[in-house]
Amino acid sequence: MAERYARRIPEPTVVRLPLYQRVLLELSADGIPTVSSAELANAAGVNAAKVRKDLSHLGTYGTPGTGYDVNYLLGQVRHELGLDQEWEVVIVGIGNLGHALAHSQRFSTQNFRTVALFDVDPAKIGKLVDEMPVRHISELEEVITDASRAIGVIACPASAAQDVCNRLVGAGIGAILNFSPAILTVALPVLLRQVDFSVELQALAFYIVHPEATVGSEAESQPPP
Amino acid sequence: MAERYARRIPEPTVVRLPLYQRVLLELSADGIPTVSSAELANAAGVNAAKVRKDLSHLGTYGTPGTGYDVNYLLGQVRHELGLDQEWEVVIVGIGNLGHALAHSQRFSTQNFRTVALFDVDPAKIGKLVDEMPVRHISELEEVITDASRAIGVIACPASAAQDVCNRLVGAGIGAILNFSPAILTVALPVLLRQVDFSVELQALAFYIVHPEATVGSEAESQPPP
DNA sequence: CATTGTGAACGCCTTCACAGCC
DNA sequence: GGCTGTGAAGGCGTTCACAATG
């Protein structure tokens, strides 16, 4: 089946697809054959209209009166997310966080495979983490095979992040996930996403200080009969 | 100076404030007295109009023709984020990630102070991590003093996350930062934010598979003379 | 004269609501 | 009858562009 052409999927939808995927995975494991948008919405913590609109971007996979076939929809969502192929991940910066990421089940499941660990600290190089040797960053280019389809994870201090980023880009990496609090600059064709713990913490503090600014919960509640 | 009343700040702005705060901190450390919205925007990786609109939500702190006074604006932003007071953080789940977070400089700087570590694993309890003993979750209530102003960090496996969440809410915690991939349900008055590595990874994979869906970079480029 | 603050225009996502289908 | 898919409406944040200002 060929790709449908050029439907652009809104980025908020892209970020919710992994949620749906996870819920569908559980439903599938439980042997549940179909879900309605309302059930899926409830499990994912969003509302039903959003689920239907989101899924409509992928195609017409639902059955009126019945809902969605769990396994079929799961396959479609996984295909859309590229989870039916394998992704190589390299982690740069094997401090506490890099260590945690390297161990993480979540990185290794879902067809993301950590293929290399890098650092600059001579004391760390050569050590085995999760049965993988920690290498010096300079070996980056040698280790990655299909760089344009590999994902680089930056878990080093902010001060080194831009340099690491440049090296990753230089090696032709396709996408970067940056866990450092540095604001990185990359040439446009390289994908870049940011995960920043302290931003989340500070946002929480803001909303504690400003309860009136809190936005309502998303999840749907039972409407009165 | 009393709070201005009931200006609601959009959540995208709230999330950008920590970015500005960080940039301003650096500028201040470098002894730079003023910034324009364009400079601040460039350093934060957003555009100038957004910076001005964001800051206008806090008040009228800029000077036409000059820009913003770095130290004054920094103080205002920090006040708005509640960073001029201290925040107690408890971490639940001292696996690799919890360990990393406990060690993290970022959690301890910025007036976020980790005050307790919890787990259920008897093998971990009593161990010292960062000079702090790991306690059993059952001690949660005893350890937290002003729970409503404390932030609970969930770093345990997804399977235990809802239970931990319930305990945190039961102890009267004010806000929760959830690093597990579980979708949590809480009573409304409790603030909840989610950080999910695998979602980010899957989003990156999506955009590698669908280059045409990529949204353009935010940063401003030099306009031609 | 550089730069802010902000109404207004715009674009985009969310929500509604219902026709259509099983 | 239950539920999907979707046009239309609505809401909200972003961007524009310019009058106001030190």
Describe what is shown at a glance.
The first copy, chain A, is built from 9 helices and 10 strands.
Could you describe the largest sheet of chain A, including whether it forms a barrel?
Answer: 7 strands, mixed
Strand order of the largest sheet of chain A: 6-7-5-4-8-9-10
Structural class from helices and strands of chain A?
alpha/beta
Number of helices of chain A: 9
* Uncertain residue segments of chain A: 1-5, 219-225
Q: Helix and strand succession of chain A? A: HEHHEEHEHHEEEHEHEEH
Number of strands of chain A: 10
Gyration radius over CA of chain A: 20 Å
Shape of chain A: globular
Percentage of residues in helical conformation of chain A: 25-40%
Chain pair sharing the greatest interface = A-B, 68 and 68 residues
Percent of residues in β-strands of chain A: 15-25%
Average predicted local confidence, pLDDT of chain A:
90
Outline the secondary-structure elements.
2 copies of one chain form a homodimer.
Chain A: H1 11-29, E1 34-35, H2 37-44, H3 48-56, E2 62-63, E3 67-69, H4 70-80, E4 87-92, H5 96-103, H6 105-108, E5 112-119, E6 128-129, E7 132-136, H7 140-143, E8 150-154, H8 158-170, E9 175-178, E10 191-194, H9 197-209
Parallel strand pairs in A: 4-5, 4-8, 5-7, 8-9, 9-10
Antiparallel strand pairs in A: 1-3, 2-3, 6-7
The structure holds a DNA duplex (22 and 22 nucleotides).
